[in-house]
Amino acid sequence: MLYRDVVPSLVLIVGELGRLLIDRTFYDNLGVTAGEVLLAIAIGGGAGIGVGIILGRNKFLQRAYEPLLHYLGPTPKIIFFPIMIMWFGVGPGSKVAMGALSSFFPVAISIAAAMREIDTVLIRVGLSFRLNNAQMIRKIYLPAMRAPVINGIRIGLGVAIIGTLLAETKLANQGLGYAVIQTYATFNMPRMYALLTVVFLLAVGVNTVLGRYTELRATRAFR
User: Where is the signal peptide (predicted)?
Assistant: First the structure.
């Protein structure tokens, strides 16, 4: 039987959830974490798309470096957090760096794989029009990889949230991760579960929106 103070009743959690949603401090922490996650996915996702395109276009670089992505991708990124602190300090920069590092690998791997699946006819068309590299990326590669890009971003966003929250639990004075670890330290279990519920629902909501967008774009593409 679970200890009721460790796993509080649903009534207590729902009540605390209601109080949480009218607490200004919660929205301050939510804003901090949301900003860090968005910046992390922008940096990590953008870098992942760029690296994925480079590896997908160049077979030599693909053979040399893509295995490293697959080896390093599953590595727990939290082990790099002390390095991030030394490089970016104890402020938001280290949390953004953790989120960016976490999101980089799934995006890069997804894009590198998608580049190999692009119809060669499309590439020949672009080359026949003498498109430069930037034009090829904008007019050929990215439109042809719309679904893999969005799926990569979906996965990257999920791990960016995890990486950012983990970093906030280790060394921070603001953010949802900090709020969760503070409630744990004070043994305020109902509030901790309420915070975790909100984080879970927000992550599911964002992932659902991106998934619906992918399905909508795919449906329009086949009409």
Answer: none
